[in-house]
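Worked example 2:
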Amino acid sequence: MNKIKFALSSIIVLLVYIFVYFVTYNFVEPRAYDFMVKNVLTEKLPFDNKKQIYGSGDIILVVIDAKTIEKYRWPWKRELNCKIFDYFNQYTKAKVVVHDSLISSMDKEDINSDKKYFDTLNKFNNLVVGFMPNIKPWENSEQGEVYDKRFSEKFSINVKNEYKKIPYLYSSVLTFPVMYFDSIKKVGSVSILPGFINGKLTKYSIDEVYRNQEYIIPYKGNFYPSLALGAFLVYQNNPKIIVSENYIKIPELNYKIKQKTSKYQSIVPIKYYKLWNGYSHPMISAVDIMDSYDNLKNGKKSIINPEIFKDKIIVIGANVPAGAGLNDNKNTPITTNHPGVDIQATAIDNIIHNDFLKIVPDFINYFLIILGISLTYLFIRLYDLAKSTFLTATLLISYLALATICFYFSIVINVITPITIFLLTTILGYTHKFILENRSKEKVKSAMGKYMSEDVMKRVISNIDNLGLGGKKANVTVLFSDIRGFTAMSETMSAQQVSEILNEYFTEMEPIITKYNGIINKFIGDAVMAIFGEPIQDKNHAQNAVKCGYEMLLKVKELQQKWVQEGKPKIEIGIGINTGDVFVGNIGSVNRMEYTVIGDTVNLASRLESYNKIYKTKMLISSSTYEEVKGFVDTIKISDVEIRGKSHKMDIYEILKVD
């Protein structure tokens, strides 16, 4: 039974741990991750005071912002974009131009405007534009197959596939207009799915926070880069890459990106940088580029010096939060209004400088949790409340400090989940300790109950912090009982036989005494001393003591018949009862004490018991007890008895019958 209880308890505790881990990891840990990224990990990119620009020096943003649409009303004809792209094609030596946008339809009212724009794009060999993979399958599968074939032939990249099982998420792509399709040469996925933490994929942790980048997109047996990886490949002259579940490798650059793969995706956490006026990279308004193009074309001075773009990666996008259909802000760990174009730039920056978060393996997180659980439980089991609480608090603070240091050095470990598990262990540990201590107390009480009265034991336990010598004066009734001829009987029997008779006798007497609110103060050889009125408060203690003594005599008669049948000697007992004032409390030394009663009342009860031998009686009571019980007992008065130790004679009474 105990093994079954232990097994059930273990299963319940394990299920509690699993539930708390699941809830905390999937719904609370993302918030802790975001907090650490924002307040501990995130750093500002370098700022050049002379040029008044910030960033890594490799990326510059060109943004269609509120300032741009103030001058050029949106939506505008696409040929206006030509000013931006012709500026970079004709007047700058930018290394890569990235267009963070999607074009899925033609301007039916002005196709010529679109054609001019597409012709401009066709002039670029270093341009990467966005495409969007879709989870939903093609509506027309035949047309989809035709498009997939053309799409893969033109835009898929040369990848050595080392996946054991290729992740599968996308079933179609957003189609380009034919003229646009024919004009562009490089594409990259602009898909960034929200949710997930620590690079780990779980459907329960999906929220509206963008934390990760999917650098490689497997689709229909081919591989495509993200917009960031596409820009990087052009920046590095299109090196060959190797992909697997754990890495994206570029051997010729001795470079690899660690990623996590599920059956759906392979993703890498984005390392964000602090924002400067809403962006983490240098930002130039598109209108300044457009006006610079006009000036240069007309022989005037450019507003923006084309030289600053030499060998840079230019990321062109739109961000007008107030409306105009150009709001591309997203919720990231560092802000709720992060421009999408800057997110793409950050992903590019990460990959260019190999500046990634280092995600610790799962087994390290599990090891830290198990270690913390073990230490927390040991603290609780081995130390008192104050010390174990201090050590547990120290453990929690130490782990939080460890997590903070790790994030500071771009190492990501679980933050709140282990702390929650440690707190749960504290609760369960103290609960277990409380149960064990209660069980131990019950065992002690059970064992002590065999050596002292249960009521005395309860009194001791209730005053466990105030134990000491001393007591009080109280009116009680004391009962002594003794076996007649015990010495002679013990001489003719073995010690074992004597102990068997005594044990059986005492076993039968104890419940009778308890029944009448008495406590057995002590066993004295073959004698029993019982007290009525303390510590159990009973105003009828004298009456109950007499009833108890009478029932003890009746029980002895039953035992006599049993013992005769068993060939054991027939024993008789004598009982003496006295009522009076006594001192009741703890008697002894400071190191060893006994709860008992002392006083002349006790001595007289003992004398009365011994007088049963003289008067051939079985139960004698004092006159003080008689005054309390005379209404319901039949007695014989024994007058003028000379009591040893008393200066005067007194009357005592033999109990004949109790009504």
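Confidence is low (pLDDT under 50) at residues 462-468. The radius of gyration is 47 Å.
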